[in-house]
Amino acid sequence: MRRRRKVIAEKYIARSSAIAARLIGGEMMIMSAVDSTFFTLNEVATLIWQAADGRTPLSAIVTDKICPEFEVDPDQASRDAERFVNDLCQHGILTMSEQPFTSPPPPEAR
Amino acid sequence: MSLLAEMNQKALGLGIPLSVHLDVTYRCNERCVHCYLDHDDHGEMTTAEIRDILNQLSDAGVFFLTLSGGEVLMRRDFFEIVEHARCLLFNVKMKTNGAMVREPEAKRIRELGVEQVQISLYSHRAEIHDAITKLPGSFKRTVQAIRFLKSQGLKVVIANVLMASNLFDNTGVMALAKELGVPYTLDPTVSPKMDGDTSILALRIPGSELKQVFRNQELVGNVEEFCAPPPAPGEDVMDGFPCSAGHTACYITPYGDVFPCVQFPLPSGNLRRQKFADIWQNSPQLNEVRSIRARDLPTCSTCAHVGTCTRCPGLAYMEGNMRGPSTADCEKSFQRTGIPSANMLLKNRTRPTVPLIQIQSIA
């Protein structure tokens, strides 16, 4: 009997354009232009947000950027990243899809 | 401490100009009686110059960008400027009189992700508003603009400058703001003209009328708290600085001049000749403004109101000394609490007094 493998769909994340953002002393400051909610992201979250170009899968962001930079356990990092991404998606700061975004990459804060 | 206050604190420590007010033009379709600007175009910056400045501001860490004028929509490239600013992810607020905002403009403003639009409204009565703006029909157009902007889901704020000529209309404007579903702000300060001409100060409301304004719960919230006598200032107050001007904020004119604030016309550099970062970091004028602490103010440091006064260093500068008192704010502190400021007491002491009985020798 063949075992059925559970297929986990890739997630692609893109920065919303309806926000204002600036990197201040290593922390990303973000304000939603829709409801003026204000966020600050720590270094890890900032790295995820900056990498959210709509084309790189979230799993690749975690393994290629987060794990080497912060020396964290990949499983734990994936769970944390998913939670963070879901949170920001709920606030409209990020958008998520199971397919790569076809529109040009959103602007990145300087 | 709120997140925003934390970021302000961080920006202050890092020397980052978090907020910039950029006037893109001084040209205007209205001729408001209290306006401090010269509306002739003396060579305002081109689109390319403004785009370059926005790039520099973004690199410097500016987050809040207020675009104002004059009337911003007098510039045909205004939306191009906003588009570039939004591509650089600034939080953009704009100020307008609304006379040129119709449905397409409101839609464009929303599409560009402008966070807030501030609109000046002087009265709920068309004849009073139009007499102040000197543009017939402006009241109708401005109110229509607010409706267009609101219908796009934009955040709109009404700014009501209070003067002798519209003194009794603030409650009417508040009611109109409520009907339109927008917040209302009131400003009882008329500033001298940029060139130092103080003739328009005659339009200010009398100090005694301020007292009524400060006791309006709808405007100030808890009146008892707002009008309470000032607490004794602690060391932190004496080591503090008056406002964000020059510390985390500055102002840029349509000609590229950099000032600490729109109300503080101390020339600190020009962006046609220097880079923004150079002016922000090295301008002797900005560094002088930054060096001033409450304890360095000769009169105000001795004042009971030093910790609670809204003293504007720009208005003080226009009165002749950036370390001096701003008499408009002395008046506000006095009308709010009933306690005269140190400056008022000093003036009363030095004013030549007429003797109660004058005796002349008969000889």
How do the strands and helices of this protein lay out in sequence?
The complex is a heterodimer of chains A (110) and B (363).
Chain A: E1 12-15, E2 19-24, E3 27-32, E4 38-41, H1 43-51, E5 53-57, H2 58-70, H3 74-90, E6 94-97
Antiparallel strand pairs in A: 1-5, 1-6, 2-3, 3-4
Chain B: H1 3-14, E1 19-23, H2 47-60, E2 64-68, H3 78-87, E3 91-96, H4 103-111, E4 116-120, H5 126-133, H6 138-151, E5 156-161, H7 170-180, E6 184-187, H8 207-214, H9 217-220, H10 223-226, H11 235-238, E7 249-252, E8 258-259, H12 276-282, H13 284-291, H14 313-318, H15 327-337, H16 342-350
Parallel strand pairs in B: 1-2, 1-7, 2-3, 3-4, 4-5, 5-6
Antiparallel strand pairs in B: 7-8
Describe what you observe in this structure.
The complex is a heterodimer of chains A (110) and B (363). In chain A, helix 1 (43-51) packs antiparallel against helix 2 and helix 2 packs across helix 3. Chain A is α+β, with helices and mostly antiparallel strands and 110 residues long. The longest helix of chain A is centred in the C-terminal third of the chain and has 17 residues, at 74-90. The model of chain A has no long low-confidence stretch (mean pLDDT 85). Chain A has a domain at 12-16 and 42-97. Chain A is 35% helix and 26% strand. Chain A has 3 helices and 6 strands; from the N terminus they run ββββαβααβ. Chain B has 363 residues and is α/β, with parallel strands linked by helices. Chain B is 38% helix and 10% strand. An 8-stranded mixed β-sheet of chain B has the order 6-5-4-3-2-1-7-8, with helices on one face. In chain B, helix 8 crosses helix 15 (327-337). The relative contact order of chain B is 0.11. The mean pLDDT of chain B is 92. The chains are: A alpha+beta (110), B alpha/beta (363). The A-B interface holds A 17-25, 27, 29, 31, 33, 36, 38-40, 107, 109-110 and B 3-4, 6-7, 10-11, 14, 16, 18, 58-59, 61-63, 86-92, 113-116, 155.
